[in-house]
Amino acid sequence: xxxxxxxxxxxxxxxxxxxxxxxxxxxxxxxxxxxxxxxxxxxxxxxxxxxxxxxxxxxxxxxxxxxxxxxxxxxxxxxxxxxxxxxxxxxxxxxxxxxxxxxxxxxxxxxxxxxxxxxxxxxxxxxxxxxxxxxxxxxxxxxxxxxxxxxxxxxxxxxxxxxxxxxxxxxxxxxxxxxxxxxxxxxxxxxxxxxxxxxxxxxxxxxxxxxxxxxxxxxxxxxxxxxxxxxxxxxxxxxxxxxxxxxxxxxxxxxxxxxxxxxxxxxxxxxxxxxxxxxxxxxxxxxxxxxxxxxxxxxxxxxxxxxxxxxxxxxxxxxxxxxxxxxxxxxxxxxxxxxxxxxxxxxxxxxxxxxxxxxxxxxxxxxxxxxxxxxxxxxxxxxxxxxxxxxxxxxxxxxxxxxxxxxxxxxxxxxxxxxxxxxxxxxxxxxxxxxxxxxxxxxxxxxxxxxxxxxxxxxxxxxxxxxxxxxxxxxxxxxxxxxxxxxxxxxxxxxxxxxxxxxxxxxxxxxxxxxxxxxxxxxxxxxxxxxxxxxxxxxxxxxxxxxxxxxxxxxxxxxxxxxxxxxxxxxxxxxxxxxxxxxxxxxxxxxxxxxxxxxxxxxxxxxxxxxxxxxxxxxxxxxxxxxxxxxxxxxxxxxxxxxxxxxxxxxxxxxxxxx
Length: 659
What we know:
The protein has about 650 residues and is an alpha+beta fold. The chain has 28 helices and 7 strands. The protein has a 5-stranded mixed beta sheet, covered by helices on one side. A two-stranded antiparallel ribbon has the order 1-3. The longest helix is centred in the middle third of the chain and has 44 residues, at about 415-460. InterPro entries: Bact_2-comp_sensor_kinase (IPR050640), HATPase_C_sf (IPR036890), Sig_transdc_His_kin_internal (IPR010559), TPR-like_helical_dom_sf (IPR011990), TPR_rpt (IPR019734).
């Protein structure tokens, strides 16, 4: 039976007079208890309160230098708040309400903490005190960040940062608030897994903390950078930052800081499979966290205990800690810890072979992760940061403009000179623009000319007439099947050439298909003596690799008519596509022809000399393509010889950048 029910049943059983007596006893007891509570506040503190309210300090530092020993005591802070309210001292109210809010935040009672910080902000606005406004906004942001309300948290921290940085010569307290804002914005990026951006914010906050000699700020930022490095997988570096943070926390004797750092160090040990060492840290650390009363820390240590025990295959104990951590995270609205707990429970049930529960826990973890790290949140934060940086720069420009206003008055005599100079600059800019456009148009014209030349080289009359004559020969010889077969290939080749000529680049697969058609048709004239083979190395996906359209045909044509046409015996062309490195693929075309020297001599002896312009056009096209790439296209032509310096053929190697 619950206490109120038991209490009520006892009263109901008493006679009427006894009930009356009992009622007056309760009233007396309540008044006595109230009087006892009022006496909890010492006379010395009451005198301090009266003195402060008479003097009415306006800065956080002045109030905190006196009230710091009692600021974590809710009875004293409530008393100070009530006295400040009665005597209309809103700055004192803002201080006390913020300390009360921090106390409730540290025991994970976030709704109560938010209500107190909002009242503190109202008091700061009533007092028109910017320092306490900034402090209250940051405190609200921290509470919302702890409960993973990312958008609201960022709104508060951005507003606090803008207000603090609007002051030309900020006080030390405002500088500390700037440090808090930067650190909190970094933490928001940490939640969203934007680790490099988060580290940049933490380093800015760390520089500010060093300037102020703020060891607590240094401890916090070292811890946060360690978390980013841990998530990035840089465990040893993260461990160094955690240990540095622990050193600072030991120096300032921060129990909470020590607990957080030790939990992080244990977490690294778990990831390094040093499970026994991790548990040796976590077990006493859990007791220390429970004595602090911060349920968010207690929750995450329980989860880490469960994780370590799970890896040691102590499944029953592991589940107990994980469920405890999960329930605490749910109770205190900690979505990221809820997601962690579900993840480990999913893994635990996988180890146990219970795949149904494992899947359910995994789905729950994914649900919470999506809520925390949604694309909407990321875009929202990026937009706001960009907006803030833009506004900040605009404000700086406006401030500089005001400072230079007096100087501009003295420089009015030079206005005409400046106007002439500006007109001259405008004219020069216009001329440069015209020249630039002319150059662009010239380049475009050159590219168009190259494309037309390329198409002419692919569709030259010799090739067309010879191909048609070869097909006609099949018809005359009544080889209908061959005639139809090669006519289909010829029409398909023409279509592919026309389609490719309108494209800047095509897939390697399309280019190889076009080349195969070309070689089939050319082989008719060589009485099918050409043994043409293609090999593409396994890691290369022909359909995703892009190359300039129609660049291989001129090199194959050159191999056919200058290398193999004069050769006796076996005639081979081998095309090989390979991965040169991360940035280049390599296409090599190797023939076993007579070689370039012999080919040149044969060409000189001919009355009708055939000049190949296709390769020159292709080289010019590749040079133009290189302008759009980080790396340039390269073409190598290698003469092949045996050990007796007898020509074995020619090898053309194209080095093609992939990005």
